[in-house]
Design brief:
six-stranded mixed beta sheet; Immunoglobulin-like; single chain; 2 domains; hypothetical protein PF0899 fold; 22 strands; 15% helix; alpha+beta; 396 residues
Length: 396
């Protein structure tokens, strides 16, 4: 005769499921740049001005007892930190919020903070979604100073980083000591593969030892917030104390239950919080940053950079932007020695009155100055081809 029982399928509706009162997830990652750069006092307005040494005095030997003593000058420049805003709104139906077994906002807030840190790193270091109010990113500034090292030429990673012509030497040639380095997680495998002349691993002595990654005593950080772009750089090194940032508005969280949310593109109303019984979490953060690049005895014209980077095998595409400076004479002459500031990257014109930048596509503000002339401003728009621009300086 048939044997019947109540199996698991029959009693599925009655079986109690165990629910773990936590969500399995990785720990939120913060901004690597903000943890390494120098923090200034909080901003009291949208823009903060930093006074930077721009021109150094010179001393002269006096020829004989009655020789004439010469004069010199010293000058200062202004560098501005402009606060840009990062913000996001997370709408949630009230019924979903009420029925949830866990604190939804408590789960969302640290992840939004992580997203803010990632955006800061990507914009400051690589220029990804860089606010137009900010100066050029660290990679662009280093590129204009010639502080980019190609990962080619038959050199191994030891020479590319610590050898002559490596990224460390590029920073040192501009008068700075390297205080930190950042690289992608994939760089660890390359470093583990480095051997000394006897074939012994440099970073790990035995497979059981944990590798402590440092180059010339400088720690290497491997960001885990997804904001390092190995297709642009394999390693970024520099004196992070030269990079400064200031906060205008710390991360502020506000819960909204009134108002509407519009599509940023079409301006159509997407949600009406009151009418649709919804609440929204609004997170706002405002900060500015700069690389002041003051004049030093090694970097008197301020065309150097406190950072350098190791390029990938296939460098990111840039386009030349040639700026030619002429005076306002009836027959214009080329102006040599004019300083061209392209979003914080500085070059000095040669005898032909030219300076050449290597820029990624974008809109770049430019300021041209030379003592004895009225400063001039222009905008360079780079798309997918080389750009040439001419500017006239008017004598004072």
């Amino acid at each position: 005769m048939p044997v019947n029982n109540i199996n698991r399928t029959d009693a599925e509706a009655l079986i109690r499921e165990q629910i773990v009162s936590s969500i399995f997830q990785d720990a939120p990652k913060q901004s690597t740049f903000m943890s390494m750069a120098r923090k200034l006092p909080n901003m009291t307005s949208k823009q903060t001005r930093i006074r930077v040494l721009d021109f150094l005095p010179t001393a002269y030997w006096v020829d004989g007892d009655t020789g004439m003593k010469q004069t010199t000058r010293q000058a200062w420049d202004n560098v501005y930190l402009t606060a840009a805003e990062l913000a996001v709104i997370v709408p949630i139906p009230e019924s979903v919020f009420d029925d949830a077994e866990m604190d939804i906002f408590g789960e969302i807030t640290p992840r939004v903070n992580e997203a803010i840190g990632a955006r800061v790193d990507a914009a400051v270091i690589f220029g990804d979604n860089r606010p137009k109010e900010w100066q050029a990113d660290i990679i662009t500034l280093a590129r204009q100073a010639g502080n980019n090292v190609p990962a080619s030429g038959g050199k191994d990673y030891y020479d590319l980083t610590l050898g002559e012509g490596g990224v460390f030497s590029k920073v040192e040639e501009d008068g700075y000591a390297v205080t930190g380095a950042i690289g992608p997680m994939t760089l660890k495998a390359k470093l583990r593969g480095l051997r000394d002349t006897t074939g012994q691993p440099i970073f790990t002595r035995t497979p059981q030892d944990a590798a402590r990654y440092a180059l010339d005593g400088t720690p290497i950080y491997f960001p885990e917030n997804g904001a390092f772009f190995p297709e642009i750089a394999q390693l970024v090194v520099g004196n992070f104390s030269q990079a400064v940032y200031a906060i205008r508005q710390d991360i502020t969280v506000k819960i909204l239950d009134q108002g509407v949310i519009q599509d940023p593109t079409t301006k159509e109303i997407v949600y009406n919080l009151a009418q649709q019984d919804m609440i929204a979490l609004r997170v706002v953060f405002r900060m500015g940053w700069a690389l002041p690049n003051p004049a030093t005895r090694i970097n008197e014209d301020r065309t150097g950079c406190a950072f350098a980077y190791l390029e990938p095998g296939t460098p990111v595409t840039t386009y030349t932007a040639t700026v030619t400076v002429k005076d306002n004479e009836e027959e214009p002459n080329n102006v040599a020695g004019a300083r061209i500031d392209c979003a914080g990257a500085k070059l000095v014109t040669d005898e032909g009155g030219q300076a050449v930048f290597n820029l990624r596509p974008g809109v770049w503000p430019v300021k041209v100055t030379k003592r004895g002339y009225v400063p001039a401003s222009l905008t360079i728009v780079v798309d997918k081809e080389a750009v040439t621009q001419e500017v006239t300086l008017v004598k004072q």
